[in-house]
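WARN  no MSA supplied for this record, continuing single-sequence
INFO  ligand: adenosine-5'-diphosphate
INFO  echoing inputs
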Amino acid sequence: MTQPRLFSGMQPSADSLHAGNYIGALLQWRDLQATHEAIFCVVDLHAITVAQDPKLLREQTRRTAAQYIAAGIDPTLSTLFVQSHVPAHTELAWILNTITGFGEASRMTQFKDKSAKQGSDFTSVGLFTYPILMAADILLYGTELVPVGDDQKQHVELTRDLAARFNSRFGDTFVIPKPFILAESARIYDLQNPSSKMSKSATTDAGIIWMLDEPSKTAKKIKSAVTDDDREVRFDRELKPGVSNLLTIMSAFTGTPMPELVASFEGKGYGDLKKTVADVVVAEFDPVRARTLELLDDPAELDRILATNADRAEALARPILEKVYDRIGL
Ligand code: ADP
Ligand code: NA
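INFO  complex generated
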């Protein structure tokens, strides 16, 4: 019985992933791998679209892969690999470059945001063509579903357009993928600034729950989370973004539906809420952290896992790429 194929990835752009990555991506991936033929990539080639420190990138790539595994991505069930280990990604990206319109690429809003954030600093053409590499990542595997956040939806649309264009010009080759949009309920916000999403690239650290932080640090951050002036524990994203964010995190970790969770805090205050959330988060991340450190302590074993998985990815990608070369006359 074949399962629908699914592809997703994250950039190795920090030492640790955070609660947003965990709830919005890893937890969902972990569930999806049971019902899909899942391919999970650490997209290091995407990470070099902004300036990198080579030593740090290598380290963060390994740490990210270890965190995927520690969070429950099973590298014998799913294909879990590092993007640059499979050269087919860059090979297909070049070919897709040649069928992408300049205007079409220029309409990608994430490039505008990211290049604006770079300020007057250097902006690479790689950052501009990033969505085309992402299209290659997806199309190389005959992917049907791409779990992404809202901000990546436009890139999946581009991927669909490129696949359809290639198919109509050169003959049926690519599967047209569909975005699998993350539920709004899985979106986690910055503890200090609950109107912006928790992000690896946030400018301050205080609002981010890192998966690999010491438990005491995590508890302290949660206890210092911004709330509001009334004292009622209630879910209301508009009026009570801080409290709602804490409730969302807790609901994701415990599986308790929101109304039930809110009811359990009746007559209790924000101090109780924060303490309970801190305990839940620490209990969830403690084993993930321990497992990550264990994996990083045995580099040979992690290398072996990543090499085996890169071979599996290569074996899936190569026949599709060969077909592409053939179709376009190379
Ligand atoms: P970051 O903003 O931390 O760099 P990425 O953009 O690399 O995160 O996203 C990696 C994955 O994690 C994506 O699947 C994205 O949807 C998910 N993700 C990132 N931040 C959050 C968040 N705050 N809440 C929920 N999911 C998130
Ligand atoms: Na599976």
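The chain has a mean pLDDT of 95.
INFO  checksum written, moving to next record
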